[in-house]
Amino acid sequence: MSTYTTMQGDTWDAIAYKVYGSCSYVGYLLNANQHYSDIFIFPAGIVLNVPEVEEETVSTLPPWKQEANEEDE
User: Contact at 8 Å (CB) between 41 and 6?
Assistant: First the structure.
């Protein structure tokens, strides 16, 4: 697990975008830093835990082909 030190004005979604490249990972940050969950806009200098996450994959295949494709991997 790595860490991120906040800058004045950081928000949860902005931090998620900076460290993961997507705002959709905010939940991972919140779960790893529950004691800061009441903060919406951060001051500078708070050290947050940044958990490792698996990349989400999006398939354009229809559901009946996705299962067959996963078996091939």
Answer: no
The SS3 assignment for 68 reads helix
Contact 4, 51 (CB under 8 A): no
Residue 58: strand, helix, or coil = coil
Instruction: Tell me the per-residue pLDDT of 15-58, one tens digit each, with 9 for 90 and over.
Output: 999 999 999 999 999 999 999 999 999 999 999 999 998 766 66
Helix or strand run (H / E) with residue 26 = helix 26-32
**3-state secondary structure at position 43:** coil
Show the CA angle centred on residue 11, arms to residues 33 and 20, nearest 5°: 70
C-alpha to C-alpha distances, 66 to 15, 54, 55, 56, 70, nearest whole angstrom? 32, 19, 17, 15, 6
